[in-house]
Amino acid sequence: MKKIKYWDINIDKRRGNLPPEEASNWSRFAKKFDIGILDLDAFSDIMGYHDFYNLDMSISPKSLYTRNPERFSKAIRKSSLKAKKLSNKQIQQRIRNL
């Protein structure tokens, strides 16, 4: 697949920082936190998954949150500008409302 150059970073077109497809378990999560697939890749890495596609096939946001709420909250704060200033309680509320 052809890669494009964007701000001196090579980005594979199919993995651009677009939101995940509607069929994804993580689509509503991505909209709530205003993040795309590249952000979700970083989030996945912090949570111990190879990449977003591996995460998407493995688990839903609610299930992942219940496994380790502290780590989840730290990971989303590092991956989303919108979540940077949210408390653990606010993140928990957003996850429950998915």
**What does the main sheet amount to?**
2 strands, antiparallel
pLDDT average, as an integer? 87
How large, in whole angstroms, is the Cα Rg?
13 Å
Q: Which band does the percent of strand residues land in?
A: 5-15%
Distance between the termini: 34 Å
Number of helices: 6
Percent helix: 40-55%
What is the chain-wise order of helices and strands? EEHHHHHH
Short description:
This protein is 52% helix and 8% strand.
Note down, in words, how this protein is organized:
- The chain is mainly alpha-helical and 98 residues long.
- It is 52% helix and 8% strand.
- It has helices at residues 27-33, 37-46, 52-58, 61-67, 69-79, 88-96, and strands spanning 3-6, 9-12.
- The protein has a two-stranded antiparallel ribbon with strand order 1-2.
- Helix 2 runs antiparallel to helix 5 (69-79) and helix 4 packs across helix 5 (69-79).
- The radius of gyration is 13 Å and the shape is globular.
Distinctive features:
98 residues; mainly alpha; globular; two-stranded antiparallel sheet; single chain
Record the SSE blueprint.
Blueprint: E1 3-6, E2 9-12, H1 27-33, H2 37-46, H3 52-58, H4 61-67, H5 69-79, H6 88-96
Antiparallel strand pairs: 1-2
